Request: fold
Amino acid sequence: MTATVSRPVRTSRAVLVAAWAFPVLIFGQFALLAGIPVAVVLAGTLRDRRLHPARWWTGLLTAAYVVPLVAWLLGPGTAPSLSKSMSPLVTVLVGVAGVAAAVGHHVLRRRSA
Reply:
């Protein structure tokens, strides 16, 4: 008989730091650079099968970022940057979605510790 030992589900430190960096960059008006933490969180979450519960939070984070990005790229606006094209309401909504995703990853990390 073989006993399988499962390691606890634990968000990696890089994913956790990137998840918290996203809202900081959004609220700091560096929205285009916030794509880097989104990519880190998405890659880290999809790569590790043990992080299946965090995929919903990652999906929320990614969707909250991609929708304004696509609207800026494809829209008729003349805003020179993503931060300037987002209204204050959209900035708050995207930032709050980032905070929710970061808290979700943080809770997942605490629950498994």
Notes: The mean pLDDT is 86. Helices lie at 13-27, 35-47, 55-74, 82-85, 88-112. The chain has one domain: 13-112. Residues 13-112 form one domain.
